[in-house]
Structure formats: C-alpha cells, structure tokens
Predict the structure.
Amino acid sequence: MAQTEWIEACETDDIEEEDVIRFDHGDRTFAVYRTDKGDFYATDGYCTHERFHLSNGLVMGSTIECPKHNGRFDIPTGSAKRAPVCVDLKTYPVKVESGKVYIQI
C-alpha cells in the first residue's frame, strides 16, 4: 500500500476567493482552489481532455473551466461537467492549519 503524506502547498492568502493556483511537487503538478464560499480544494493540475494546466482556468463558484476548450469540472468532486471533458479529475484531501493549505498525496 502506498504511503500518503500532507504537503504544504501554499498560504491561505495566496489564493483569492474564486481562484486557482498551480502547485508542483516532485514530478507532479496540482491545482489548488478557493471557492466562492472560501473553501479550499485540490485536484490534478492538468485538464483530462488535452493536458492544459487548470491554473490558467476560470473558477466560478465551485466549478473550474479549462482555458483551452472551456470544458468544466466540479471542483469538490472532480466530476466532468461540460464537454469536451468526459474524464473526471483526481481530487486530493485538503486541510488548513495556521494559515497554510496542505494537500494529502
């Protein structure tokens, strides 16, 4: 069984509400989000359609729109919501402690 660990991704102040940033760790890349309600989430960084990084996308409430072909995903669940995306994003547990955002990978 693979071991998981909590990795510090950013400070809470690094992400505005309804925004997304890129976080790279080792050979992996992630997207870290803050929804309109102030909740934090993390997914794989690349769109499942054509591997364009989602950090350049548009966050609308709890939805991320890929900047390349405007496919949409539900941020909390990673579910594909609008064509051309049809494969869900992998999501990761997130916790916030002392003003820092951590991802469990």
